[in-house]
Amino acid sequence: MAEITAAVTKQQQALKSKSKVRRFLRQWDLQLMVIPALLLIFVFSYIPMYGVLTAFQDYNIFKGFLDSPWVGFKHFEMFFHAPEFERVMRNTIIISVLKLAIGFPAPIVLALMLNEVKNMYFKRFVQTVSYLPHFLSWVIVSGFAMSILSVENGSLNMLLQSLNLIKEPISFLSIPEYFWTIIVTTGVWKEIGFSSIVYLAAIAGIDPSMYEAASIDGASRFKQIYVITIPTIMPVVIIFMILAIGNLLSAGFEDLLLLGVNPILRDVSDVLDTYVYRTGITGQRFSYATAVGLFKAIISVGLLAFANLLARRTGNSLW
Amino acid sequence: MRIKSSFSDRSLTVFVYICLAVIAFVSFYPFWNAAVVSFNKGMDTALGGVTFWPRAFTLENYEIVFQDKRIINGFYISVMRTVIGTVASILFTAIFAYGMTKKELIGRKFYMIACIVTLYFSGGIIPTFLLIRGLGMMDNFLVFIIPGLISVWNMIIFRTFFMGLPQGLEESAQIDGCGYWATFFRIVLPLSGPVIATLTLFTAVSHWNDWFYPSLYITDEKLIPIQTMLQQILNSNIVSEQFSQLDSASQSRLSSMKSITSKSLSMATMMVATIPIIMVYPFVQKYFVKGVLVGSLKG
Asked: A136 and A33 share a domain?
């Protein structure tokens, strides 16, 4: 009896899987919509993920990925003992943290200020102008920075000279001490407006009667921002905070590559990403650079998990 | 009833307006100044003090830029890759997204997970570089189009939008005998104007602004887009080379001007590389302010 039931279920299963194949074939026109795209995703996203294993090889251009010899953690050890290791790690951490500490709250403050503006024309004007830099490429932005900060008639030098703050023009872009300030400022300049959109949208969702009630109770506008606006947009802030922490180490690559080219600045501008670029693309040390990139990716995933853990404590988890 | 505003409220207002005016000025000044310098005689700019308005107005910087065949070619490459790349990417991503909305799609869950994973993990720059080289896409126009053809972010945004469309329309189309493809092209696509416009503009901007990947994958000067070229110009300020590109007649004419400097030339080139962005900007703004993107990101 048991055997018969088993045989029957088996037959049913076979029928089921057969009908699944048949169902799959019958919806070929639907599958045709997604399968080519999935193949592209496979080729351009999954093959490189697999290619990360190059980090454990001595990649040889002529042998290719399949025939290159395996060397274990050699490249990781080389990186940890490299003379650049300390400098690269220090710059990566400092620049990332500075960007997060200043670049993250800046758009929130801008959104709070825009919300206080009652004149719609002025508000629209500030928004239009401050969103614009987001749409310019980093090449253009770095060109602006070079022009404004130029030692020969750069606008900043002209301004400081006319205010009698300095006597001789300063070559801002070739003095290491100024570099971090410049990088953080250009980053904020480019993204402050556009990043504020999300927070403005969150603020727009606040019930106006809360403000009315508060002002009847005699709360000043500043107090209203502090007790109504900020707490209400906090969930959005936390979600973007998590995303920002997950991206912490990727914060800025193009800007550092473009503005930090001057070899005098390498001591302060060299971060993990630029180091990967220099050793891998310029230096053709593919395995070594992949290992450094993988090291960065692992830390990033760790940071994301950590940030999410913190957020879960406050009840705003991403997943 | 209007409650009389207190002193602290008024001072807050004044403070906010001043801050925002400063932000607006700082946001716009670099752009304005670059435009002014590009319309000012180079030698005059070198004397200093050119800030808000050209002191010695001229078009000679643009004259040189527009006679530089490499810049014209770079502009052409950028336009081609932006137009072809954007149209192809939006079309294929939208088809993909529509397929992913169908509950009867076998393997839908698995496909979705495969997509989401790519948002969190990537192979990084070196393995991607090796792959592109292995595929023989170096110095090939296709490298601008194929790797970015499907955007998972855009797929998710499209998908969210499609799922919000009224079901009845699609059903009635299917009753009338439309298959998935006909329904997509006849019913869904025509209803998706706002989301297509937003994503098209964002995709186009990222195509136009891409300078880094061409610097990796393109060595052939005929295929270098304008942003990458501009980066090379800013790096080396190759004015003399730009001069050598001119035909002899205009060369002798322009060398008599002798008022061109590398700064004024790079500013003019930067303006040329920015004009398309400025042209689409008012249209982009209309859409993103409405929060199409914000809404779909929340979903």
From this structure: no
Q: Look at residue B241 in the predicted model and tell me its pLDDT.
A: 43
Give residues 240 to 279 of B whose Cβ lies within 8 Å of A: 263, 266-267, 270, 273-274, 277
pLDDT tens profile A45-83? 999 998 888 888 888 777 777 778 888 888 999 999 998
Across chain A, what does the average pLDDT equal?
Answer: 86
The predicted-structure confidence for B248-294, as pLDDT tens digits, reads as follows 555 554 544 445 667 888 889 999 999 888 887 777 676 665 554 44
A44 close contact with B: CB closer than 8 A: yes
pLDDT over 50 (residue A153) = yes
Q: Distance of alpha carbon B37 from its chain centroid, rounded?
A: 24
Query: Taking CB atoms and an 8 Å limit, are B274 and A136 in contact across chains?
Result: yes
A54 inside domain = no
Residue B188 — φ and ψ, nearest 5°?
-70, -50
A6: domain range? Answer: 2-48
* B134 in reach of chain A (CB within 8 A): yes
Q: Is residue A68 part of a domain?
A: no
Chain B contact for A39 (CB, 8 A cutoff): no
Q: Are B54 and B39 in contact (CB under 8 A)?
A: yes
Task: Report B:94-113 residues touching A (Cβ under 8 A).
Answer: 95-96, 98-100, 102, 104-106, 111
Residues forming a β-bridge with B273: none
The mean-pLDDT minimum among A112-126, A247-261, B99-113, B138-152 falls in A247-261
The answer to whether position A319 is within a domain reads no
> CB of A233 within 8 A of CB of A203?
yes
Measured CA to CA, the distance from residue A146 to residue A172 in angstroms comes to: 9
CATH number of the CATH domain containing A127: 1.10.3720.10
What are chain B's domains? 61-299 (1.10.3720.10)
| Residue A238 near residue A314, CB atoms below 8 Å | yes
Q: What is the pTM of this model?
A: 0.86
Residue ranges of alpha helices (H) inside B39-67 are 42-45, 60-67
Residue numbers in A near B28 (CB within 8 A): 129, 132
Half-sphere exposure of A296 (CA within 13 A, CB side): 29
What ipTM was reported for this prediction? 0.85
How long, in residues, is chain A? 319
Give the H or E element holding residue B267.
helix B262-289
Cα(A110)–Cα(B19) distance, rounded to whole angstroms?
9
A186 domain residue, yes or no:
yes
Distance separating alpha carbons of residues A255 and A253, to the nearest angstrom = 5
